[in-house]
């Protein structure tokens, strides 16, 4: 049977591995060539080797949330960072980006206490807090501020809620440009 692009899948009974045959243009069906692959050609990797390759020594938890009691997305990000820190023994830095909240009577200490409580629930007691105020550093630069802090502390992974992107508090394109390490955006 011929499938898409003139390729036919058959089983090579001699070696018990899948082979793909492709017909050369202008040639008869008897003049097929074979490209065979098998799982035996790929060296097996154990789970311990995979975990050893992934190492997060320094995690940056970014909170861009005007809610002092944290939104569901921010709570998910805090819980994820706590879990990763417990698994890898990582150092945690919490970046609080204060937006221009004119008229907001929220106490910033309430937000810190909530973050401390949620990290404590995940088993984390040691972390550093860094604060950036957007009123002082300029508007629409929260993405750049996240990249700068990630670069300053040499973060291995930046974790934040995707609600900040949806609320237009950060620009995802600028995050991709300025953050020097992998990012994990959580719903």
From TrEMBL:
Protein name: Universal stress protein
Provenance organism: [Myrmecia] bisecta
